[in-house]
């Protein structure tokens, strides 16, 4: 049998007709020039036909045992996770029962914390935890947005990768290093060049001034909030950068093509397209701020007093109180009060995550309705 491919070469199969083809044969490739001289180039042992269908039938069917084992392990992992979560909640509640029975809900809004007299209240740690977290978010969210905007829209190509790596490295610095740097380096500079001018500028105002009164000593709630902001910026900025990069290029180029500025593209195109991911990144940073211990312990002041609401004053947080007192707490009400602080922190974190989840669900429903 002779066949002529599009290239003009002649392909022949030696000694076989089309009906006599076997699984393997010999292929002779003859070019027009070589055909004139009688020379042939042979490619031998080239398979012409695939394996006979009988081989496929002989293959064993996959055993269902693998699927059964995999499904069982997946269910076991889910059950273990739920059991761990339930065990933590139950253990915190049981350990907190003495203070729950003695103080009740008054434990939440009582500012007294006096272990010798067995009087405990969680208002000071709760206020310090919420205040430092809010300060951290107020500072970190706009800074993170600016970093993500620069990396995705404005940065030159040669700077984008090194700057992104440098920002991600900030997340790898241990929190105790942040705390030591904040106490020894940042706090004195912060008191002299920021708290003192800010107190002079805003301390005399009617309502807002109460937040900026007192001696600018550096260590306090405001300093702890700034250190927390520095710590959570890498997390929020990295998430924002990643979600900004998934915005379709066609949408942004179309907006630029009709004359939109970079700010208009980010505000009207990128943010609406990525708002779910942005909210998730902000909630990730908030969760990180609520649970931070060592850095806050170094710079918040660790004082269980609430004489005023000034952000310059030393304070305490739930995590700092647990870190400072748990090892030396006497059995009884003191230990129970600390365990109840842990339970309160768990509830606060659960509420924050639940609110963020509800916000995301509402955003998804509103987008689906459109």
TrEMBL record:
GO molecular function, one term: phosphate transmembrane transporter activity
Sequence ranges assigned to domain ABC transmembrane type-1 in this UniProt record: 126-356
UniProt record, GO biological process: phosphate ion transport
PROSITE patterns, sorted: ABC_TM1
Primary localization: membrane
Ligase as UniProt keyword: no
InterPro entries linked to this entry: MetI-like (IPR000515), MetI-like_sf (IPR035906), Phosphate_PstC (IPR011864), Phosphate_Transport_Permease (IPR051124)
Annotated function: Part of the binding-protein-dependent transport system for phosphate; probably responsible for the translocation of the substrate across the membrane.
Family membership noted in the UniProt record: Belongs to the binding-protein-dependent transport system permease family. CysTW subfamily.
Name of the protein in question: Phosphate transport system permease protein
Organism from which the protein derives: Paraburkholderia silvatlantica
Higher taxonomy: Bacteria, Pseudomonadati, Pseudomonadota, Betaproteobacteria, Burkholderiales
């Amino acid at each position: 049998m002779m066949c002529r491919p599009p290239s003009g070469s002649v392909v022949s199969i030696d000694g076989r007709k089309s009906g006599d083809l076997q699984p393997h044969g010999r292929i002779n490739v003859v070019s027009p020039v070589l055909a004139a001289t009688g020379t042939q180039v042979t490619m031998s042992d080239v398979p012409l036909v695939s394996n006979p269908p009988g081989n496929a039938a002989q293959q064993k069917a996959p055993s269902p045992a693998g699927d059964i084992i995999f499904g069982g392990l997946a269910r076991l992992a889910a059950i273990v996770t739920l059991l761990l979560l339930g065990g933590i909640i139950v253990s915190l509640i049981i350990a907190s029962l003495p203070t729950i029975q003695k103080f009740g809900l008054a434990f939440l809004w009582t500012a007294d914390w006096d272990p010798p007299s067995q009087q405990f209240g969680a208002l000071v740690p709760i206020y310090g935890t919420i205040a430092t977290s809010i300060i951290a978010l107020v500072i970190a969210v706009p800074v993170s947005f600016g970093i993500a905007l620069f990396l995705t829209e404005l940065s030159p190509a040669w700077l984008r990768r090194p700057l992104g790596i440098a920002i991600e490295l900030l997340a790898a610095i241990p929190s105790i290093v942040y705390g030591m740097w904040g106490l020894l380096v940042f706090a004195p500079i912060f008191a002299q060049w920021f708290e003192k001018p800010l107190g002079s500028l805003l301390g005399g105002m009617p309502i807002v001034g109460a937040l900026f009164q007192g001696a600018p000593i550096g260590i306090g709630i405001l300093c702890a909030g700034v250190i927390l902001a520095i710590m959570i910026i890498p997390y929020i900025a990295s998430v924002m950068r990643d979600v900004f990069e998934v915005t379709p290029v066609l949408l942004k180029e179309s907006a630029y093509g009709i004359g939109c500025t970079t700010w208009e593209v980010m505000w009207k195109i990128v943010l609406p397209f990525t708002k779910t991911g942005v909210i998730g990144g902000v909630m990730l940073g908030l969760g990180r701020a609520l649970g931070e211990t060592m850095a806050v312990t170094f710079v918040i002041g660790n004082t269980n007093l609430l004489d005023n609401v000034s952000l310059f004053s030393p304070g305490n947080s739930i995590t700092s109180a647990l870190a400072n007192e748990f090892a030396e707490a006497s059995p009884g009400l003191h230990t129970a009060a600390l365990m109840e602080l842990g339970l309160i922190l768990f509830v606060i974190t659960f509420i924050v995550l639940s609110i963020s989840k509800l916000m995301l669900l509402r955003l998804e429903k509103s987008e689906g309705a459109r």
